[in-house]
Amino acid sequence: MTTPRPSTDLSADEARRIALRAQGLLGTPDRRAGVRGILRHLGAVQLDTISVLARSHELIPYARLGAVGRRTVEDAYWAAPTTRAHSFEYWSHAACILPVEEWPHFAFRRRAYRARPHWNHALPDGAYDRVIKQLSAEGPLTATELGGAKRTSEWWDWSGSKVAVERALMYGEVVCVRRRGWKRVYDLAERAIPGPLLHDDLDDAECLRRLVRLAGQSLGVGTRADIADYHRLKGEQVDAVIAESGLVPVTVEGWSKPAWADPAALEAPARGRHRTTLLSPFDSLIWERARTERIFGFTHRLEAYVPKPKRVYGYFAMPVLAGGRLVGRVDPAREGRTLVARQVTVDGAKAVPAVAQALVEAAGWVECTDVRVERVDAADLREPLVRELARLLA
User: Fold this and answer.
1) Which residues of 12-29 are buried (b: 16+ CB within 10 A; e: fewer)?
2) Cα–chain center distance at 23
3) What share of the chain has pLDDT > 70, as a percent?
4) Residue 174: beta bridge partners?
């Protein structure tokens, strides 16, 4: 019996479902694998300093697993001093938590940093060697413990020790495998990374093939630009290896550019339970704006760094995912035990129950007992939303 070939012509709806399943938002997640399983599945979880409901790296597993304990999330990511590292921080899509087994495949980026001719911060004479010697002698330390993180109160004005240790992190001589009070704890890579992984002998092509393949698996299906953006590769780097990456070319209805898919994603239709949840603006489902618009018809933009008078949806507007669609936005805040929806955008009356459900679940996760709605862009939907919230909270 001949095994049928995977289809290489996808409808827009099939591509959307494949993308959702690849991101762990369609189907039943493997709860036994927990937060670490989500990290391995996604390949990268972005970090950011903004904390509204919670920090973004906490919101990512919450969106997929539901109300997993926040302490559980932190413990899953960060290695305790006496335990083996499961992850490390490095520059991927942005500053990201990455599965520790992918350390060898970022050798191409470490080499590129070592060969970089210009840096934003000058490295003071002797600072690099002092930091390495101090870490070697004293063990894992924060930038403050290494001699100070900043010269002034300005965020960009790093001390010599901070410049040196961040340079060493980029080079791969130093690694961060845990946080302490949100501060990076630096250690020598030779001490923190498991021995079998601690090598930089993979050539650039092998590293890039792996990262392109991982990006394809995490996206399910994507264009060249989608795949490049996932780990912030250059388009020409993707072009050089995609034919040997294991991804297969496909066409997607309505997409103007060629696409590639994970062959495993084509083997069976993407079906299962949809999550109804608030998404972090830094969620990998919506990292690339053009992709989000292409797949969901949804314009996503983080407005935290936009002057307040120019904001359209709010400081930390979180897209609402329901039924495999992006059906609204919520700009949240917390006041004591109340989750405040400062601004809500709802895609029609049919989306009101989903937005209410997402708000109530998020409130329970962050130990809020009430939800208050301040503004709904469509004024006629405010009262139905308030009524539905009251019903769910009763």
Assistant:
1) eebbbbbbbbbbbbbeeb
2) 10
3) 97
4) 188
